[in-house]
Design brief:
6-stranded mixed β-sheet, 3-stranded antiparallel β-sheet, 34% helix, alpha+beta, Creatine Amidinohydrolase, Creatine Amidinohydrolase, Chain A, domain 1, 9 helices, 2 domains, 355 residues
Length: 355
């Protein structure tokens, strides 16, 4: 089914005449249009891309079968009003979880429509279960990450800064076919590795440091995500202990993943191992999240996730232990959930690497 037809079904279920899609990832998913500015307009009779002159040619090339509307001097509101009048729209849906309040106020004040109806994440939820083509793009993106990990191990030397390693990672991601990084690479050494989302700094990497590298790229619009932690030099007994607990927790979670489980139940398997080992309070984030056109999607693997994990969903599995003043470890794979288990898209070594 064409994705605009799935949106038309949402409109019908919500009893609205039309919807304005403003979330860029949803616009791309539904229409193929990947421009940075514009709306999709979908009603029973029309499916349109509304954008400005900078993106007209791109919209024509990417949104096959869509009507392309280029706004004039009256801006988006004038163009949308013309469409609403022609289409006799009384109730118009909008993506309330995506739109700034100031933008919503503009629509309320300027659109000639009886009712603006929030549709929350109804369209975003269409993206949860990936198509075979989407899965292939994500797999290719993750394969690029594996290549980068192999190569970055030959680059890292004591005395380099975290920023140097991060820059090299992001360069290699593009060199091997990534369109861009799916998020700014995290490179955290020594005590900085105790911060799960540390920002790379001018700190020099020293012998004996944990070094956590978390990165991904975009391939055909789809994101990858992986994390590996190594030790530069020889690992201490304490480092080996923490690393092995995290690895045990990750492997245990992977053992139970399959369609039909709640996200919180998968999270609990890994969390219990870490807490029972004496590191309660040192694993403060969820076990994982979905990945697709956006790097952090739902459903999650977390203590609060009541949603069911279904076949065809992509999830990260990334337990960690973070000890203030000492350092931390995170190991992250990207997996496709199947009816009876999972397919792991990440193939980089998970044994403790000592450079």
């Amino acid at each position: 089914m064409d994705n605009f037809k799935r949106v038309q079904e949402i409109n019908e279920n919500l009893n609205i005449d039309a919807v304005l899609i403003s979330n860029g990832n949803n616009m791309r998913y539904v229409s193929g249009f990947a421009g940075e500015t514009g709306y999709l307009y979908i009603s029973k009779n029309h499916h349109m891309v509304i954008t400005d002159f900078r993106y007209t040619y791109q919209a024509e090339a990417e949104a096959k079968g869509y009507e392309i509307v280029t706004i004039g001097g009256g801006g988006y509101e004038e163009a949308i009003n013309d469409i609403l009048k022609t289409d006799n729209v009384k109730s118009l849906g909008f993506e309330s979880k995506d739109m700034l309040f100031s933008r919503y106020q503009d629509l309320v004040n300027k659109l000639n429509v009886d009712e603006l109806v929030p549709i929350n994440d109804d369209i975003t939820r269409l993206r949860r279960i990936k198509t075979p083509k989407e899965l292939e793009y994500i797999k290719q993106a993750e394969a690029i990450g594996d290549k980068v990990f192999t190569e970055i191990l030959t680059f890292i030397k004591p005395g380099m800064t975290e920023l140097e390693v991060a820059a090299r990672i992001e360069y290699l991601l593009k060199l091997h076919g990534g369109e861009r990084s799916s998020f700014s690479a995290i490179v955290a050494s020594g005590v900085n590795s105790s911060m799960p989302h540390a920002v790379p700094t001018k700190k020099k990497i020293e012998n004996g440091d944990f070094l956590t590298m978390d990165y991904g790229c975009v391939y055909e619009g789809y994101c990858s995500d992986m994390t590996r932690t190594i030790v530069v030099g020889k690992a201490s007994d304490k480092q080996k202990e923490i690393y092995n607990i995290v690895l045990e927790a990750q492997l245990a979670a992977l053992d139970v993943i399959k369609a039909g489980l709640k996200g919180k139940d998968i999270d609990k398997v890994a969390r219990d191992i870490i807490y029972k080992a004496g590191y309660e309070g040192c694993f403060g984030h969820g076990l994982g999240h979905s990945v697709g056109l956006f790097i952090h999607e739902d459903p999650r693997l977390s203590p609060s996730e009541e949603g069911i994990i279904e076949a065809g969903m992509i999830e990260t599995v990334e337990p960690g232990i973070y000890v203030r003043g000492f350092g931390g470890v995170r190991i992250e794979d990207l997996v496709e959930v199947t009816e009876n288990g999972y397919e792991n898209y990440t193939h980089s070594d998970k044994s403790l690497i000592e450079l």
